[in-house]
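Q: I'm a student working through a structural biology exercise. My instructor gave each of us a protein and asked us to get a predicted structure, then write a short paragraph describing it. Mine is ABC-2 type transport system permease protein. I'm not confident about reading structure output yet, so if you can add a plain explanation after the tokens, that would really help. Here is the sequence I was given:
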Amino acid sequence: MLKTFINSFNVSFAQNANSFIFFLKRLPLVGKKIPDRLYKETGIKTFFGVLNTILKFIGGFFKAALYIGIMIVLPAYLITKDKGDFYGVFLNIYFFLSFIIGPVIKSSIFDITNKEAYDMINLMRCDAKEYLLSHMIYEKTVSIINMTIPLFIFGLIFKIAFLNSLILLIEILFVRYTGEFLQLIFYNKTKKVLAQTKIISTLVILISLFLAYGLPLLNISISFQHILFRPFLVCLIFILAFLSVVYVFKYRNYKLIAKKVFVKENIFNPETAKVKMQFSNVELNEKRVGKELLDSSRFDKKQGYDYLNSIFFYRHRKIMIYPIKIRVYLILAILVFFVGYLVIFPGEKSGVLKYIDRSQPVMVFILYIMSTGERVCKAMFHNCDVSLLRYGFYRESKTILSNFNYRVKKIILLNLIPAVVLMISIMVVILVCGASGRLFSMIPYFVSILCLACFFSIHHLFMYYVVQPYTAELTVKSPFYKISNAIIYFISYFCLNFKTSSFYFTIGVLVVTILYTIIAILLTYKLAPKTFKLKE
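A: Happy to help. First, here is the predicted structure for ABC-2 type transport system permease protein. I'll explain a few features afterward.
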């Protein structure tokens, strides 16, 4: 196995050197002065290979620092700056992100975009087991080294004990090996890669994110300080990791995994694979289209684009409703959790009521996440507009405004379903807390929830018509679209720490929603005939 690792490292080293030279040749002004003969110069290539390796390590440190800083330290600081217990919240977020989400979405063995694995196994004929195991050990070791300095630096800044930081690093290393074992078990049972299984991975991520950030926001604490550093738990994690490594090393079917996972399409056309993944959740399965869906007689009384849109939303209703169902089920699950929690711990009712009173700005971020507007726009483009946009009549102002008005109503209705369920769930929690008298004073709160659902519905459709970010090949080609979405995201995230009265907040949300709707309609009518077209 050591020989396989050395060979793969040498091949990767040479490829990285060539890639670095190729990158330099593409730089403006400087690139033209770099001769092609550098590809043959062993000494120069060695220098560039070493330089590239060093830069990769430095990049790894920065990535780890950004991950710990932005995803863990910053939220923990913002949540606890007024009430303390930074370390407890830090560990809560760290646990659910690194111990739960990480092993699910990240695997050294099942990395479908690993070009080096494709080259070494399929082209260089390396033993699949030896390569994948050596690659796993190397990658896990490097990732822990990358995380060491940032974690210790943040530990010094926020006065986290050095020994505790060291234990966290050791535990996360053990957990990652256990994660590889779980990935293999899942693949053995289902013949699918866990990270590519949408329902399971999405549920794990959403639930873990809620537990990571939601519990501290709700003042619900899990004493990870007294859990993660217990010698018993450290020994248990070590034993699980040891047994996992034994299983991983004894596993025999790596060759079959390599044949299925490391395929040309994923390696050489990652954008195509990415596009298929992005649009697969809005693609209509023609094999499952029955006579009922094809029967359009129920819309005989409709004409023109009303007829077109009615058929579209009817035939694609499962695509539209599925994410709504997931959101509703998730809200109901959280409701059951809270009701059970309040029944078991009735003394926490006053604390929950206080949080609800000041949680209105948090609803901005929650409603942003819950909005299905972007998914519906993808479905409309992929299954309808990509074909019709080739014709000039479909881009006329009247046509665009007619379609926009119909579609915005549908999207608003869809997004109002989870919003109403959320609103009713909050009412139930208030009633369980024995504060039915507060329901009347909470009307502005509930109105703001409905307004936010409408706002995000309008925003996504407005951006779709005014920017139209998709190409005929189903790729996203619009920096402005990405920037605008990022701005909305950061505004929503900023609102997590916004403090104001329920009444004034509702007035603000209502005014912004009405103004945004008017502006969206006017700009869509004026700009969309020029911008609503296929990107080249």
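A: Here are two points you could use in your paragraph. The mean pLDDT is 82. The first helix runs from residue 2 to 25. It's a good idea to check both against the output above yourself.
Q: Great, thank you!
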